[in-house]
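I am still getting used to backbone structure tokens and would like to learn alongside you. To get us started, please write out a protein record for me. Start from the sequence, derive the backbone structure tokens from it, and show both lines together. Once you have written the record down, we can walk along the chain together:
***
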Amino acid sequence: MIFESNHNPPLLHNYTQLLHQLDPPDHHIKQQRSFDRCETEIMEECELPFVDLCGLWSENEEERASCASEICKASAEWGFFQIVNHGISLELLRKMRVKQMELFKAPFERKAASGLLDNSYRWGNRTATCPNQLSWCEAFHVPITKISDDTCYGEFNSLREVMQEYAGAMQELAKSIAGVLVTNMGVKRGAWEDKCNASTCFLRLNRYPPCPISPEVFGLVPHTDSDFLTILHQDEHVGGLQLMKDSKWVAVKPNPDALVVNIGDLFQAWSNDVYKSVEHKVTVNKEVERHSIAYFLCPSYESFIGCCEEESSIYKKFTFGEYRSQIQRDVKDYGHKVGLPRFLVST
């Protein structure tokens, strides 16, 4: 038996329990054959569209327009793109990664029971009913509103200052990119900015421990993001992010100089499917751990999400609160998120 170190969550034990819930022996055999296919599958690696944000801050109108066009094109064709010269210092990114790694080295029992970061610690998937619903990861899914609260850091109070600086920088960057996408839709930027503030945005610190049964297990199960957009600071060297492109999974090549931006469900609905919220997942590594940090730009729960051209919208009008509640019900009832198809006018 493989024993997990004391700072790792009991993912292997949880996986084994889920495997034993299947009807023996047929399910186990079928699943093992599926895993064997995964072992030999050759994954195509892709370079995401590359956007240099220098143009966005330029005093030259043509350069600004060209950069905005690249952002909108990538959002429509890929739903993902990478950005450089984004204005967030490499030193801040480095400091945040160091603090993140220190945090995850704490014993599992302390992370799970301490109330650390507003009880934001998560691991695995508590709603999983079979192995392919299990995410081999642990995370702190932190509300931005709690980052300035020094009472929720405990022994990790030194994390507070860098977390505040990091979240503030990500918030401004996310709003700048979203502003470009909104303007392209013909919506007044000021009207849109009222929808987004820090009250419902999140910062998620992820760790994917080495997995002895990789690649059968997802680091993060296939999903779309339920926000406007996400900015991801992924591991500089260890790959794992994959996205659906042209009906097949492709692996995203890590770029140490870039951040990754992806469109969420809310922008897809608001743009009437012009911008794409693309399904993506994370794979794990047998030998090394992987870290990433994601910033989620969300509206208030009362904000209505509807196409700017309501008469031609393919989606019903809904609030962010309604959307999140429906997702939670679906995950509880079916073990997975259904998402935007729930809100199609035709349903």
User: Anything to note?
Assistant: Residues 26-40 have pLDDT under 50 and may be disordered.
